[in-house]
Structure formats: C-alpha cells, structure tokens
Amino acid sequence: MGIRKAVIPVAGLGTRFLPATKSLPKEMLPLLNKPAIQYIVEEAVSAGIDDVLLITGRLKRAIEDHFDRIHLVEKHLEMSGKTELLRIVVEPAGLANLHYIRQPEPRGLGHAVLQARWHVGKEPFALLLGDDVYQGDPAAISQLIAVHEETGMSVVGVLPVSMAETGRYGIADFGPEDANPAKGPVLARDFVEKPDPEEAPSNWAIMGRYVLTPDIFEALEETPKGRGGEIQLTDALRTLARRGRVCVVALQGERYDVGDPVSFVKSTIAMALRDPAIGPEIRDFVTALLAEGVRQAAAAAEEPGAEKRA
Ligand code: G1P
C-alpha cells in the first residue's frame, strides 16, 4: 500500500533553546524566512502525502496558527497590493490536511508516536522529526518510501557520525559485515538508543526520517521505559528488527540540523549561502567578517608581549 499519512511529533519541550522556547515552540524558529516545521510539512507533501498528523503539546498553539488562514493580515496585504507576500502567507494553510493530537505528558518519542495509532490505523506511515530539515530531490522521506515500496518493511534513514557522537543518536546494527547503507538498503539487526562509543554497534545514526509499518504500535505498547526513563521509539524498532522487519538506508541530500543553537546557526549560514537570492550578499558579509578576524589575530600577534601570552 502507498504511504498516505505522515506523523510529525512536535511536543518536545525545546530545552536546548531556552529561554527562546519559554513561549515559542522550537519548531517555529525560522530558517531564513520560514519556520522549520513548514519545511518538514512541505517535505511530506512533496512525497505525495496529504494527511499530516502533528503530535503536539502544551505551548505549541503557534504551530497550529501558522497553518491557519489569517484574514486580517491577508486583507491588509491584498489592499496594499503585496501579492507575493500574500501568496506566501496563504500557502501553509493549503499544503495538506493537517490534524493535531496532543501528547498529554512528555513521556518520550515512542510515547508521542503511539498517540498516532488511531489516526494512522493499519497502514504504513511516514515519520518525520523536526530537528532535521532535508533538501534535495528526491526528498529524504521519498527515498525511504521507495525502499518501503520495494521491500514492504519499515525503513529507517541513517547517516554516519563520528564515534564520539554516538551518544546523541539511535545507532543501527546491520549485517552482513560488508553491508554499507550508503550503497543501498541493508537489513537491520538491532538498534541502540544513544550508546556510549564503546557500546555502539556502528557509527550509523538514525537521522529523523522513518517509514514505519503499523506493527510498530504493538511493539510500542509493549516497550518499557528506556533511556532517560522515556519510552523510546528506538527500543520498539529493536523488536521489529529482531523479527527481520526493518532495513536502513543512507539519506541523500543536504541536511540542516536545527536541533540546538550552534547547529541552527551553522544551518542558517549554509542555507543562506546556497540561496541564489541572498547567497552572494551573505558570502561577501561572511568573507569580510573572516578577513576582519584574520586582521585582528595578526594585530594581536604583533602586540608587544604577545609571544609570552601565547
Ligand atoms: C531522537 C531519537 C534518536 C534519533 C534522533 C535523531 O532523539 O530518539 O534515536 O537518532 O532523534 O533523529 P532526540 O534527538 O529526540 O533526543
């Protein structure tokens, strides 16, 4: 069966962005002029999905507002002849059929996904996490959908990370020994949520994109609390992997990590540099800043006593 539904969990507390996220959902932080969540919804839509379920929570109403019409502003833009602005203001409301379910308490990603059970029913679905924005053609989620259509299995998108970073991600174990997810889908044997480097079965990390078969919901029901005292999606994936029902494949395309402030800044710079409209201006700006930095470093090195300090 084709993939008709997408689930996007947005109930996270956004603690890495405090104090900005005291009153603003982290998913509404803008990458250039669009909130991060809009890129994620657009990715699902580009894969032919028109039913999108957001798992939301406290303080997330701004996300719902973003995908609604806003007649007062629209009228103002219309009257002042700002047609392009009017178009981009109206656009989010027409993207897809959006649905919202609340996760009543923050009990982990697995618990958030479980809230989608009755909406999704007995069909495979796409799961997109908001901390990673992907751009490229075909879209990241479309790459996984294609593998699901070939194999009928759950498919998890992965990317290599340095061994020092395994503790930040779900890590895949797969076989046989010479298997390489960069060359095509490989069968997953197991997954481990955020292992220390010594315990990591590989350096291939789960990167926010999944196609899941509906048996994930039964697995989640039976999954006890895991890492951090939370119900982990990765632990439920383990159950399916041990039945030989999951494969992993490397995601292609540009990835913009918007999960913490430093990554967010890097992603903003990278996206701005690649934007044909503003790229040249940003490149000149960054080049001038770097030159200034080099000049200051050189001047500091020439100051008397600089050698002693160094
Ligand atoms: C979640 C998952 C983890 C995955 C990561 C990035 O962690 O639990 O397995 O690797 O997203 O997709 P979080 O970043 O929410 O802590």
Which key phrases capture this entry?
nine-stranded mixed sheet, 310 residues, two-stranded antiparallel sheet, 13 strands, Spore Coat Polysaccharide Biosynthesis Protein SpsA, Chain A, alpha/beta, binds 1-O-phosphono-alpha-D-glucopyranose
How would you describe what is shown here?
The protein has 310 residues and is of the alpha/beta class. Helices cover 37% and strands 22% of the residues. The chain has a 9-stranded mixed beta sheet. Strands 2-3 form a two-stranded antiparallel sheet. Strands 7-13 form a two-stranded antiparallel sheet. Strand 2 (30-31) and strand 3 form a beta hairpin. Helix 3 (71-79) runs antiparallel to helix 4. The chain is globular. The termini are far apart. It binds 1-O-phosphono-alpha-D-glucopyranose. Residues 109, 129, 131, 169-170, 193, 205-208, 232-234, 259 line the site of 1-O-phosphono-alpha-D-glucopyranose (G1P).
Helices and strands, with pairings:
Elements: E1 5-9, E2 30-31, E3 34-35, H1 36-46, E4 51-56, H2 61-66, H3 71-79, H4 83-90, E5 97-102, H5 109-114, H6 117-120, E6 125-128, E7 132-135, H7 140-151, E8 154-160, E9 170-174, E10 186-193, E11 204-212, H8 215-221, H9 233-242, E12 246-250, E13 254-257, H10 261-274, H11 279-302, H12 306-309
Parallel strand pairs: 1-4, 1-6, 4-5, 8-12
Antiparallel strand pairs: 2-3, 6-11, 7-13, 8-11, 9-10, 10-12
Helix pairs in contact: 3-4, 8-9, 10-11
How many domains? The number is 2
Q: What is the second-level CATH architecture of the largest domain?
A: Alpha-Beta Complex
Task: Indicate the mean pLDDT.
Answer: 95
Order of helices and strands: EEEHEHHHEHHEEHEEEEHHEEHHH
* Tally of strands: 13
Percentage of residues in DSSP E strands: 15-25%
List of distinct ligands in this structure: 1-O-phosphono-alpha-D-glucopyranose
CATH superfamily of the largest domain, called what?
Answer: Spore Coat Polysaccharide Biosynthesis Protein SpsA, Chain A
Output the structural class.
alpha/beta
CATH topology descriptor of the largest domain: Spore Coat Polysaccharide Biosynthesis Protein SpsA, Chain A
Compute the CA-based radius of gyration. 22 Å
Shape: globular
